[in-house]
DNA sequence: GCACGATACGGAACATTGTTCCGCTTAGCA
DNA sequence: TGCTAAGCGGAACAATGTTCCGTATCGTGC
């Protein structure tokens, strides 16, 4: 969906192969480093993990916010893209649950992002929108399939659920047992109103 | 209200006179520097303005969040404390207007604080509460006096007003003409429903 | 008023991180 | 295969956070 660092680029010549490799490596490394150290992690940590020099980093991401934004979008895309595979592979309720857990994992790597979002940098303005626009339809589809299968009630609002799980998963601390338990609680809640004789797990 | 940096101190021996001077100087300097450069301003800028060494700074504020929190509380106190004098010196409606402008000035120095508040540092958890607990009664009193004088309507909610002006004053950019105009607009709005034949300015 | 111990001060030194610069390497192309 | 522009690496520099310790000051008991 996004093949480069700057989203505002008008018409930029296609990246040379090695440059594309660098960008990919940096995004992958940054995602890992952000997950373990937050978005304020030192540049050197990222370049080291990516195996590139500092110059290369600043060539592709002159502003830190460019990198943060790019990593965020890439991870949103990846998480949203996981849904179809789950839908194809599992029954609707399982697909739903597994995707919610995947989503919680996504949220868990967002330490420090909340503060960045409030920094006032206009680069971030579009991120909440990107978040909603990508996730809401995905979850709506999962919910609808599960509802049509009679596994869950049909009046759940996707956006409500996304925010609820977003809040549940914020901590990131200790084991994610807690988040997982809360998710299954939510899913049980969804099942409660299903047409058939659903029973809590 | 708060005579030292750490709010969690159990029973700490009273500060030596020179230490108290240092703390005061640092808080005053930090307030100025924060206002002009945001809460991420370099430590050296603060110590230079306060006329103290780096060691002194870290002795009193081991964590930056300690300083930010202390400055915030001190300024909340000062702003809230300005109300009685205004009440004594001006008619109720004037006192109300002047205090709201003072409050807007307070908000205008809070660049970067919003991001800090979302950083997750538990030191900040109590600040929003402190903000509300100090300002709401003050404004409620000003509103009530103005309402009893027949200058404004009596159904205004203090907390609503605080948040509204907080939002109006956020920018801090250009001249504060804009904020001032918006405040007088709000006050006119309050006057509109007054019992007597109040007329917009 | 004086001496003494505890407390606090200042600022140089060190550590960490952000950012730039430039000689060298490589991809893409004719 | 050779040329050129794009890209790379990492040393060097700059800005800032943080520590350390010799010196100065305060509060106190006499």
TrEMBL record, chains A, B:
Show the stretches that span the lipid bilayer: none
Q: Which residues bind DNA?
A: 42-61
Domain HTH tetR-type residue range list = 20-79
UniProt KW keywords: DNA-binding, Transcription, Transcription regulation
Q: Would the keyword Nucleotide-binding turn up in this protein's UniProt record?
A: no
Q: Which residues form the signal peptide?
A: none
Q: Does the keyword Iron-sulfur apply?
A: no
Superkingdom, natural source:
Bacteria
GO: which molecular function terms?
Answer: DNA-binding transcription factor activity; transcription cis-regulatory region binding
Q: What is this protein called?
A: Transcriptional regulator, TetR family
The top of its lineage is: Bacteria, Bacillati, Actinomycetota, Actinomycetes, Kitasatosporales
């Amino acid at each position: 969906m996004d093949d480069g660092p700057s989203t505002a680029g008008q018409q930029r010549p296609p990246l040379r192969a090695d440059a594309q490799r660098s960008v990919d490596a940096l995004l992958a490394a940054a995602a890992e480093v952000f997950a373990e150290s937050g978005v304020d992690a030192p540049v050197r940590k990222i370049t080291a993990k990516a195996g590139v020099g500092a110059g290369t980093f600043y060539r592709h991401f002159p502003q830190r916010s460019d990198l943060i934004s790019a990593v965020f979008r890439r991870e949103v895309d990846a998480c949203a893209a996981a849904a179809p595979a789950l839908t194809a592979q599992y029954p609707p309720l399982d697909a739903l649950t597994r995707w919610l857990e995947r989503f919680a994992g996504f949220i868990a790597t967002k330490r420090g992002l909340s503060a960045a979002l409030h920094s006032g940098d206009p680069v971030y303005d579009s991120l909440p929108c990107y978040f909603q626009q990508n996730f809401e339809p995905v979850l709506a589809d999962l919910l609808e399939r599960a509802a049509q299968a009679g596994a869950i009630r049909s009046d759940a609002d996707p956006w409500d659920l996304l925010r609820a799980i977003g809040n549940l998963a914020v901590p990131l601390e200790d084991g994610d047992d807690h988040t997982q338990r809360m998710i299954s609680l939510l899913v049980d809640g969804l099942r409660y109103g299903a047409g058939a004789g659903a029973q809590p797990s």
